[in-house]
Amino acid sequence: MAAWSVASPLCTWLVAACMSASFQDSHSISPPASSLSPSKRLSRRLRRKILTQCGGSSSSNRFSSISGSSFQGLVSSYLGYLEPCSEYYISRGLASLGFFGDTGFTSLFGSRTVRTNRRQRMLNRSTHSGEAVAVALEPAQEVSTKKKPITKQRRVVVTGMGVVTPLGHDPDVFYDNLLEGVSGISKIETFDCDQFPTRIAGEIKSFSTDGWVAPKLAKRMDKFMLYMLTAGKKALADGGITEDVMGGLDKTRCGVLIGSAMGGMKVFNDAIEALRISYKKMNPFCVPFATTNMGSAMLAMDLGWMGPNYSISTACATSNFCILNAANHIIRGEADVMLCGGSDAVIIPIGLGGFVACRALSQSNDDPTKASRPWDIDRDGFVMGEGAGVLLLEELEHAKKRGANIYAEFLGGSFTCDAYHMTEPHPDGAGVILCIEKALAQSGVSREDVNYINAHATSTPAGDLKEYQALIHCFGQNSELRVNSTKSMIGHLLGAAGAVEAVSVIQALRTGWIHPNINLENPDAGVDTNVLVGPKKEKLKVKVGLSNSFGFGGHNSSILFAPYK
């Protein structure tokens, strides 16, 4: 501490001194002698006289030493130009410090010891161009560093859920359909897709915004925003946030973090078509309603929530990134309540065509319900889906105080990047393994406690097997482990997938039932069916549930939930 209290004023003094010297000797800003007032000319003569008496050389001679190769020479030049004589420092009591030797600062930089009388020291202090120097040498008080008081980490719980999916728009209806093995994949009806090699999707057939979104906005917004707003408000209703409860919330500590992988593709595509005719035909909302952040922003405007508000877009890992970041805002004390998740709606010609061009989609058009088949030897690509999932996260004590129904506790999670390929997984699964291990460490969960995993498993030839191998690497010794994929029934909801699958994990915690893997008729030779859930739902008391989501670009994410205790 002694070294810090001295070194800090020294560094400050050096900076101030150098700046002062540079300022004085800059020809571009120094006024000519003739323009100075008599009093200022007198001051300059006094300064020159004092400097000559103290140092015995002119400023030009002093600065000639700058051309030397040593740092000591440079600093000595500046100190010699501005230094108020060594006796000044001795009078301040600094020279007696052993850190600087017998002559204080001067011995440190090799300055000469010069005798001066009291009058010269007073003149030197009054005429120096360095009020900053005087301030730096006389700090008001010693700088001290205080450690942040140790506080117990704030716990995060799930108090509400909202979904818009091909299997229903209520969390219970959605999960009941999953338990029964119902498929939400069918032929696309929104537009004529006969020209495409893929003509199936997890398309939402019936959806209404009545009671959730103002009719005027419903006509203008992209579907991804409508799904997001509806699922978000349903999560609030499910969490018991009535108008009365809303009135009692500190809205500066309530935030929204709901992302999207693709944003408003329909709105933007329509704008391009309008532009072919004239820019005057373009929708004035085409730019804001196409951006991925606007859904979170519009929901916050509707609710008046002024806390953290933004969106994250990490392809198909978007929802998990949003959920984990939202939880971190609560843990850090920046918010008490957060709506988080993801939404996407790209079952339109440009969306379908883009993924067809990537050669990523299944072409099993003859039997849509059989098309999505994770880990099955006959899988030929993923099936696009659409929808939204939103969780209402809350700080535990805040939730208890308002008497909220707590569904589960959010334990933590992690992100990593494969840094390997835009669309292909890393051959040895290094990024996924690292992500899972970091998530366990961050959450303080042992491998043995994780007995249920909702896998990313999109029904692609490479992705399913690489993820499975990573899971076995991390949890292969856990005989209770059960793994399934929600995508076998609803397809891949892209940026919304992680949030909808998080709802699936939470429902498994609540009900004690995990849903089946449908279409797993001929398991890949590289998987063990003793780990994968079969074609029927299974009873399981979930201790800790893990949900994986991976995205184009090598984005990996894992989040963990457990029953609230």
UniProtKB/TrEMBL annotation:
Source organism of this protein record: Trapa incisa
One GO location term (cellular component): mitochondrion
This protein's record includes keyword Acyltransferase: yes
Superkingdom, natural source: Eukaryota
Signal peptide: 1-28
InterPro entries: 3-oxoacyl-ACP_synth-2, Beta-ketoacyl_synthase, Ketoacyl_synth_AS, Ketoacyl_synth_C, Ketoacyl_synth_N, PKS_Beta-ketoAc_synthase_dom, Thiolase-like
Top enzyme class: transferase
Keywords carried by this UniProt record: Acyltransferase, Fatty acid biosynthesis, Fatty acid metabolism, Lipid biosynthesis, Lipid metabolism, Signal, Transferase
GO molecular function term, any single one: 3-oxoacyl-[acyl-carrier-protein] synthase activity
Name of protein: beta-ketoacyl-[acyl-carrier-protein] synthase I
Pfam families, alphabetized: ketoacyl-synt, Ketoacyl-synt_C
Domain Ketosynthase family 3 (KS3): 153-563
E.C. numbers: 2.3.1.41
Family, similarity comment: Belongs to the thiolase-like superfamily. Beta-ketoacyl-ACP synthases family.
PANTHER family in alphabetical order: 3-OXOACYL-[ACYL-CARRIER-PROTEIN] SYNTHASE II, CHLOROPLASTIC, POLYKETIDE SYNTHASE-RELATED
